[in-house]
Write a structure and sequence with these properties.
- By secondary structure, the protein is α/β, with parallel strands linked by helices.
- The chain has helices at residues 14-25, 63-66, 69-80, 108-116, 120-144, 150-177, 180-187, 191-203, 215-227, 237-249, 296-300, 305-312, 351-362, 416-434, 450-456, 510-520; strands spanning 4-10, 30-33, 45-46, 55-56, 85-88, 92-95, 101-104, 229-232, 253-255, 260-266, 269-275, 280-289, 319-327, 344-347, 365-366, 371-375, 390-399, 405-406, 442-448, 494-496.
- Helix 1 (14-25) packs parallel to helix 10, helix 1 packs parallel to helix 16 and helix 8 crosses helix 9 (215-227).
Length: 522
C-alpha cells in the first residue's frame, strides 16, 4: 500500500465513507483509516446475542440515507455492491398507559382512523397537514440540504420570501424557532397525538420545551405518512459494506484497527496523518477528520484560540443505552396485536414525561421513567433472525453519560459497569407493563451502555448518538461553530465532517456529501 493519497480520511463512519466514495468517483485516490476493528461507526450490524440473530448496533432507520441526494447520485454503484433496503409501510406508533395506541401508516385512511379513535378534529388536522406537505416540503428540505454558507442561506431566504411573501415567511421562521410543545399544542387537541409526534424530537435532543425542535416531529410525521421507513436488508450494515466495496473497487483503501495519533502539518497546512503504529500517510489535497469536535485539537495541536475553544466546548446531548434482545416471539402488546405491525413503538406517554426525563438526564440522573424506542425489524425483514424467531432493538433514552445519581432513588451505583443491569431492568420492567410476558420470550440479551458506545466509537461522547446537541446555538451556521459549518478549519486542507457538522445527525450522509461536493464538485 502506498502511503500517499489525494485525501486521507480519519474514521470510517458513513459520512466519511460517503465523502470518500464521492471523491473517488471524481478521480481522487482516497485512504480511510479507522481505529475500530470494523467500519461503520454507529451504523453496523452483528450477532450480539446469539448466532443467527443480527442486531443493528445503534442506527436502525435508514430512511434518510435511502432518500438522500448522495444515494440518488451513487445508487447504481452502491446497489451493485450489495446495498439493499426493505420498505416499511407502518413506520411508527406510540402506546399509552391507558391501553390506547396511535400510529402512522403509509395508508392515509388507516392513519386517520387511528387518530380519529382519539380525536376526529385531530384526524381532520392530519389530513390538512398531509395535503399541505407537498407545498412545505421543498422549503424544509431545501433548507436542510443547503450548503452551510451564508450566501446559500441568504439565497434560500430570498426564494422563501418570493414564494411565501412576508407574512408566510415570518410564519415559517416562527415555526422553525418553535419548541415542539408549542407547535403540537397549537395544532392537535389530544395529548396522545401530541406525544406520538413529540417522541421524534427526542431522537435529535429536542425535548418538548426546547426552541427549534418543532420541525422534526412535523417532518417525521409527514415523511412517515408519505414514504414510510427504510431498513437495511439483513441489517443497517448493508450501507457500510456497499460503501467500502465501492471505494476499494475504485482503488481506495479502507483500513481498520488503525488509530490516528496526530494530523501532520507543515506550518498552517495539513499534509497527512501519523498512525499509532508510527506510519505516516501523506495527503496531497485534503485531510478529512470524521471525529467529534473535542477530539480535533488533540490531533492537530493548537490552531486558533477561538476555534480550539469552540471545539473543546462543543455541547453533547444526553446518552443512550441499547438493549438487544433475541426473542422466540414478538412482544404481546397489551394494547392489541396491531402494534406488532410497526417498525418502531415509542414508549413516551406524554410531553410532561418526556420533559421530566430529559431534565433528569441533563442533571446526570438515571431517569425514573426512561423513554423507550422499541424496534421490531424482523416484522419487515425476517432474514435478521432464524425462522420463527425475532430481534428486538430497544433504545433507552435518555441516559446520562456520567451518572450522578438515580431519579428514583433505587440505584446506588454511579458507574456504568454497576448501574447497567439495574437500569436495563428498569427499562425492561417498563416494557413488560406494555407487553406482559415479554421476559418469558427472551432467549438472550446484550446491554450496551453509553460508556461502551463511546469506547466503541469515540464520536458518541457519553453515548450521545447524534454527536452533539442540535439546539439553535449549535445548529445551522453554528454547527459546530460559527464560520465552520462547511467543515472548514483554520488549518489549510484540513476539514471536519460527521454529525457534528451541518446538516447534522442522521443516516443521510449530508455532512460528508456536502463536503465532498465542495472539494471536488457535484
Amino acid at each position: 500500500m502506498t502511503n500517499a493519497f489525494d485525501a486521507v480520511l480519519i474514521g470510517a463512519g458513513h459520512n466519511t465513507l460517503a465523502a470518500a466514495l464521492h471523491l473517488s468517483v471524481k478521480g481522487w485516490r482516497v485512504g480511510v483509516f479507522e481505529q475500530a476493528a470494523e467500519p461503520g461507526g454507529a451504523v453496523k450490524t452483528g450477532a450480539y446475542t446469539l448466532p443467527g440473530f443480527r442486531h443493528d448496533w445503534a442506527a436502525m432507520n435508514l430512511s434518510l440515507f435511502a432518500g438522500s441526494g448522495f444515494f440518488k447520485q451513487h445508487s447504481a454503484e452502491l446497489t451493485q455492491h450489495g446495498c439493499a433496503f426493505v420498505p416499511v409501510d407502518r413506520p411508527f406508533a406510540s402506546v399509552f398507559p391507558d391501553g390506547h395506541w396511535v400510529g402512522v401508516s403509509t395508508n392515509l385512511a388507516e392513519t386517520k382512523s387511528a387518530i380519529a379513535a382519539l380525536s376526529t378534529r385531530d384526524a381532520a388536522t392530519w389530513q390538512r397537514l398531509v395535503d399541505g406537505f407537498g407545498a412545505e416540503a421543498p422549503h424544509l428540505f431545501g433548507l436542510l440540504n443547503s450548503p452551510a454558507r451564508f450566501n446559500a442561506f441568504a439565497y434560500f431566504m430570498l426564494k422563501l420570501l418570493k414564494s411565501k411573501g412576508i407574512s408566510g415567511s415570518l410564519d415559517f421562521g416562527r415555526f422553525l424557532a418553535s419548541a415542539p410543545r408549542r407547535w403540537l399544542e397549537d395544532t392537535f387537541e389530544h395529548p396522545h397525538v401530541r406525544a406520538m409526534l413529540a417522541a421524534w424530537g427526542m431522537h435529535l435532543d429536542f425535548a418538548p420545551d426546547v426552541a427549534g425542535g418543532a420541525m422534526f416531529p412535523y417532518l417525521e410525521g409527514m415523511a412517515g405518512q408519505a414514504f414510510g421507513m427504510a431498513l437495511g436488508q439483513g441489517g443497517a450494515d448493508t450501507v457500510v459494506r456497499a460503501l467500502v466495496g465501492a471505494i476499494t473497487a475504485r482503488g481506495g483503501v479502507v483500513e481498520c484497527s488503525a488509530p490516528v495519533r496526530r494530523i501532520l502539518r507543515e506550518g498552517a497546512r495539513a499534509t497527512g496523518i501519523e498512525l499509532a503504529d508510527g506510519r505516516q500517510i501523506t495527503a496531497r489535497r485534503a485531510v478529512i477528520a470524521g471525529v467529534a469536535p473535542s477530539a480535533l485539537p488533540r490531533l492537530t495541536g493548537d490552531t486558533t484560540p477561538a476555534f480550539d475553544t469552540a471545539m473543546r466546548g462543543y455541547a453533547h446531548a444526553p446518552g443512550t443505552m441499547m438493549i438487544h434482545l433475541a426473542l422466540d416471539a414478538l412482544p404481546d402488546w397489551a394494547a392489541g396485536p396491531a402494534l406488532r405491525r410497526f417498525a418502531y413503538v415509542h414508549l413516551a406517554p406524554s410531553l410532561d414525561q418526556m420533559a421530566r426525563t430529559y431534565q433528569q438526564a441533563l442533571a446526570g440522573l438515571l431517569p425514573d421513567e426512561p423513554i423507550l424506542v422499541v424496534g421490531q425489524p424482523t416484522v419487515f425483514d425476517p432474514s435478521r433472525a432464524p425462522e420463527g424467531k425475532h430481534t428486538l432493538w430497544v433504545q433507552v433514552r435518555m441516559a446520562p453519560g456520567t451518572i450522578r445519581g438515580d431519579a428514583a432513588g433505587q440505584i446506588a451505583a454511579t458507574d456504568w459497569a454497576s448501574a447497567a443491569e439495574p437500569f436495563a431492568n428498569r427499562a425492561l420492567d417498563l416494557l413488560e407493563r406494555y407487553a406482559p410476558g415479554l421476559r418469558g420470550h427472551i432467549l438472550a440479551q446484550r446491554i450496551v451502555t453509553p460508556e461502551e458506545l463511546e469506547a466503541d466509537n469515540p464520536n458518541l461522547v457519553g453515548g450521545d448518538q447524534v454527536c452533539g446537541s442540535h439546539h439553535l446555538t449549535q445548529h445551522f451556521i453554528f454547527r459546530p461553530t460559527r464560520g465552520h459549518a462547511d467543515g472548514s478549519t483554520p488549518v489549510q486542507n484540513l476539514f471536519l465532517t460527521g454529525a457534528a457538522v451541518w446538516p447534522g445527525a442522521g443516516t443521510g450522509a449530508g455532512p460528508g456529501f456536502l463536503l465532498a461536493q465542495k472539494l471536488a464538485g457535484k
